[in-house]
């Protein structure tokens, strides 16, 4: 969301533009905002594509990576977390993220969607559509965090954690990045579709949550392997398709910027998929199906902040580099540090997000085919990107610690060892995924 | 009567079944099993985490036949399941005391 315009009205031009205008021009420069039906149609579609990423995309991708005894638990936690995020979003999330407010968090003027009507316009689309599109981002980000905690965290703990985490971590960071007047927005940080808000945020939070939660029983001695890479493959495909809503939709219009985001979402991902398999071969392994899927996700993550902020060749390089770095993060860094990030939410979303956020400063340069202005300076932007990344890491870490400890106090956080051995499907939900 | 248990390579099942049917063996029970012998297992790698599986997938065939043809059954399985590589499997022969066909109550050789 390079340009996250607020509701029609005096502030529609955005804080930066407004500041530059003489006072007399403000009244004259606010023509009645009009919905563009092409933009609206694309944004309605994009919103549903992001929902597809969660259900069934992420649910299958993550579910296939868990053991058969935890399949339903994984899928249900993702679905329920997404539903929780939707409800919280309309209650206080939207206003905290996009209501009028300060640098860190929005105000409470739109609590329970107050004042929003079918006639409200955001940019060139109905505000309800804008709010729904942003709602799906909150939903998937919370669901992504669970990649670090599945196979041992209680369902009730997930819900308590989600409620607090969205409120103190996601909404403020979304505000900082995308709302005019938000801290990173004012700094000029580039984050087209949420590399910082969604991926670094989710990845870092997953790592912190996994560290507090502790390792799964048996990790890393026992054989803990994906129970169905077939389903993971299906989920990967759905994620990629849905990601076009995520990235190209973040243009908030059906325009050239969306087109740029689309081509980048194709080629960065393709490069990343092959790069992962290649680096597997370089390390003496076989090029694997899981590597292919992991590369796809790493590429999608990395291109997210760069989607409309890079030329296609910059995106290819960015995708490939992110894929290689993520490979080493999950195969070398994780075992060396010994943490149990169950499904590598940090290794792929956290690390890939950081590579993407920093790399965006480079690929934005017009000399490298990016859409930056001729006087664009990589050096200064790198500093801005790094500041946004570091602030997000610190904010997400502190917020996650608070949210996890509250969940622990209220629910006990972790299932009993017997339940973990038997599987969360049976212990937490009273069902089995497969009857055989 | 003899019970012949053969543990063979999975892809050899169809060949063995056809050869035994030609011999007049009227039925068999087949189970997918895992085990290990001299053949070493495979190594699986998931995002860098290596697991060597000592257990190799095999097919276990159980055939009960009249003592008169037991030797030929064993020879046939040995010939058809043979590839010459480690992991071809094993054949065990046990005595069977009694057999009953559930539908009719027929016993022993007639029940097979």
Please name the defining characteristics of this protein.
heterodimer, A: 436 residues, mainly alpha, Ammonium transporter fold, 16 helices, B: 112 residues, alpha+beta, four-stranded antiparallel beta sheet, 37% strand, elongated
Largest sheet of chain B: 4 strands, antiparallel
Instruction: Give the largest interface.
Output: A-B, 19 and 8 residues
Number of alpha- plus pi-helical segments of chain B: 3
The domain tally of chain A reads 1
Global mean pLDDT of chain B: 94
Ends apart, CA distance between termini of chain B: 9 Å
N-to-C SSE string of chain A, H for helix and E for strand: HHHHEEHHHHHHHHHHHH
Secondary-structure class of chain A? mainly alpha
Strand line-up across the major sheet of chain A: 1-2
Query: Span between N and C termini of chain A?
Result: 47 Å
Rg from Cα of chain B: 17 Å
Portion in helices of chain B? 25-40%
What is the level 1 CATH name of chain A?
Answer: Mainly Alpha
| Main β sheet profile of chain A | 2 strands, antiparallel
Helix tally of chain A?
Answer: 16
Q: Detail the poorly predicted runs of chain B.
A: none
Order of helices and strands of chain B: EHEEEEHEH
Quick one: CATH superfamily of chain A? Ammonium transporter AmtB like domains
CATH topological fold name of chain A = Ammonium transporter fold
Note down, in words, how this protein is organized.
The complex is a heterodimer of chains A (436) and B (112). With 436 residues, chain A is mostly helical. Chain A has helices at 15-20, 23-28, 37-65, 71-98, 127-145, 155-178, 183-187, 195-213, 229-247, 256-282, 289-303, 312-337, 345-363, 378-411, 417-422, 424-429; strands spanning 121-122, 125-126. In chain A, strands 1-2 form a two-stranded antiparallel sheet. By secondary structure, chain B is α+β, with helices and mostly antiparallel strands. Chain B has helices at 13-23, 67-80, 108-111; strands at residues 2-8, 29-35, 42-46, 49-53, 56-65, 89-95. In chain B, helix 1 runs antiparallel to helix 2 (67-80). The longest helix of chain B has 14 residues, at 67-80. The mean pLDDT of chain B is 94. The chains are: A mainly alpha (436), B alpha+beta (112). At the A-B interface, helix 11 and helix 12 of A face strand 3 and strand 4 of B.
């Amino acid at each position: 969301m390079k340009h996250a315009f607020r509701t029609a009205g005096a502030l529609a031009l955005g804080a930066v533009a407004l500041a530059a205008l003489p006072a007399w021009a403000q009244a004259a420069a606010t023509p009645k905002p009009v919905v563009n039906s092409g933009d609206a149609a694309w944004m309605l579609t994009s919103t549903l594509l992001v929902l597809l990423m969660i259900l069934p995309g992420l649910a299958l991708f993550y579910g296939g990576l868990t053991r058969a005894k935890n399949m339903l638990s994984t899928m249900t936690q993702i679905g329920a977390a997404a539903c929780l995020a939707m409800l919280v979003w309309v209650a206080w999330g939207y206003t905290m993220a996009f209501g009028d407010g300060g640098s860190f968090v929005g105000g409470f003027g739109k609590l329970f969607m107050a004042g929003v009507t079918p006639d409200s316009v955001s940019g060139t689309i109905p505000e309800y559509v804008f709010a729904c599109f942003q709602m799906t981002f909150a939903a998937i980000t919370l669901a992504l965090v669970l990649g670090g905690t599945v196979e041992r965290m209680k369902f009730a703990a997930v819900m308590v954690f989600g409620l607090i985490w969205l409120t103190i971590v996601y909404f403020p960071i979304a505000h900082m990045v995308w709302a005019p007047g938000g801290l990173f927005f004012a700094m000029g940080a580039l984050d087209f579709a949420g590399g910082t808000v969604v991926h670094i945020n989710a990845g870092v939070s997953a790592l912190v949550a996994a560290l507090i939660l502790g390792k799964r029983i048996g990790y890393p001695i026992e054989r803990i392997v994906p129970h169905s890479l077939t389903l993971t493959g299906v989920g990967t495909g759905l994620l990629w398709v849905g990601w076009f809503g995520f990235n190209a939709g973040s243009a908030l219009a059906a325009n050239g910027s969306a087109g740029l985001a689309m081509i980048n979402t194709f080629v960065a991902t393709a490069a990343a998929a092959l790069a992962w398999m290649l680096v597997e071969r370089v390390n003496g392994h076989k090029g694997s199906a899981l590597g292919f899927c992991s590369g796809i996700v790493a590429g999608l993550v990395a291109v997210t902040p760069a989607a409309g902020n890079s030329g296609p060749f910059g995106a290819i390089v960015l995708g490939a580099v992110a894929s290689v770095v993520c490979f080493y993060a999950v195969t070398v860094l994780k075992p060396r540090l010994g943490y149990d990030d169950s499904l590598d939410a940090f290794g792929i979303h956290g690390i890939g997000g950081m590579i993407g956020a920093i790399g965006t400063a480079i690929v934005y340069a017009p000399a490298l085919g990016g859409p930056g202005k001729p006087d664009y300076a990589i050096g200064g932007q790198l500093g801005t990107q790094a500041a946004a990344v570091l602030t997000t890491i610190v904010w997400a870490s502190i917020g996650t610690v608070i949210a996890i400890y509250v969940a622990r106090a209220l629910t006990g956080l972790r299932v009993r060892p017997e339940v973990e051995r038997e599987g969360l499907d049976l212990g937490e939900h009273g069902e089995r995924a497969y009857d055989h | 009567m003899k019970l012949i248990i053969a543990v063979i390579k999975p892809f050899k099942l169809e060949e063995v079944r056809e050869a035994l049917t030609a011999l007049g063996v009227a039925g068999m029970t087949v189970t997918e099993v895992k085990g290990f012998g001299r053949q070493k297992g495979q190594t699986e790698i998931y995002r860098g985490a290596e697991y060597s599986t000592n257990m190799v997938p095999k097919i276990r065939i159980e055939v009960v036949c009249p003592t008169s043809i037991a030797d030929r059954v064993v020879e046939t399985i040995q010939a058809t399941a043979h590839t010459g590589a480690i992991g071809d499997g094993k054949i065990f022969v046990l005595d069977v005391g009694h057999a009953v066909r559930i539908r009719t109550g027929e016993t022993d050789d007639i029940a097979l």
